[in-house]
Amino acid sequence: MKNVLVTGAGGFIGHHLVKYLVAKGYKVRGADIKMPEYEATAAHEFLQVDLRLHDACQAATAGMDEVYHLAADMGGIGFISGSHAEITLNNTLISAHMAKAAHDAKVGKFLFSSSACVYPQHLQTSPDVTPLHEDVAWPAQPEEGYGLEKIYMEKLCQYMHEDWGISTRSVRFHNVYGWLGTYDGGREKVPAAICRKVALCPDGGEIEVWGDGLQTRSFMYIDDCVEGLFRLMQSDYTAPLNLGTDEMISINDLVAITSRIAGKTIRMRHDLTKPQGVRGRNSDNSRIREVLGWEPSIRIREGLAPTYKWISDELAAHAEAKPTAVAAE
Ligand code: NAD
Q1: How many angstroms separate the CA atoms of 221 and 281, rounded?
Q2: What residues make up the domain containing 8?
Q3: Scanning 194, 260, 273, 275, which has the fewest C-beta atoms within 10 Å of its C-beta?
Q4: Is 73's C-beta closer than 6 angstroms to any atom of ligand 1?
């Protein structure tokens, strides 16, 4: 039985990946600075550690055959565009120490979770953007801070493979969403934020949308995400690879689909002062089809229904848990 480490196992993708790998029969160690928020971990062992510290990375990688490195300081566009120093410093420390520890522990395979944020900003200026092919990432002009560390780490993975013989993977996620993902507090991403706003809004009411809502993205449901991670790890492909759907929709479409799922009529109030990220982004899936003979296929309507239901149930449960005011006698 292989020993596998998942960093970021207290987070959204890491938690789902741990469950998936345990079900496949792997012996899984999770590592994260926090425990999973919404459900107990399925990991056989869980280290609650700060991976910015090299000693913690050494303890996490000891005895491991494979590493899925997902831990990162991250969040939605509001957090990413407002915390460049914190994100860049934290993620550089985490990833560099994880790379060194994986080398010292003689780990066979090391997967790094990169992002579509590595792609040049100037190629994403229009809502009907050309899907982003892996080869256009260089010459680089990534997202400030967050994307910069991701593209640097992709290069480090390439050098680790070339110089140290570690079989590395760099996976460029495109907007992952699903149940058990953060839905409030400022670090939530757009599908979760829209689900929360729609769930809290009465039928016929209005929600705030960041930007004019014409900005476009593609979104990948969590089940496709963990399946793709596993398939990539089993392959022998070491160069960066997109992992996302190529079903591009606008944020206004996302609101409309969510409202239909909720059975509500919702009006939008666009706040043009809020960050909206790049104007358009979509995944070019020609390479993943070629390399894995597979690509994410869950349509946004299919994935949003269980996501909306989970978020709306969570909000209802928390509203019930709040003590109600007792009238004074
Ligand atoms: P997440 O925030 O839910 O999970 C990241 C985890 O890393 C968190 O549990 C956090 O506690 C942990 N972490 C942060 N700092 C740490 C530290 N110092 N020590 C130990 N653990 C620490 O995010 P996610 O959506 O599950 O993302 C997982 C990975 O995928 C990240 O590397 C992220 O950058 C990447 N990614 C995600 C998306 C997406 O749409 N979710 C898109 C592109 C890339």
Answers
A1: 17
A2: 3-176+222-243
A3: 273
A4: yes
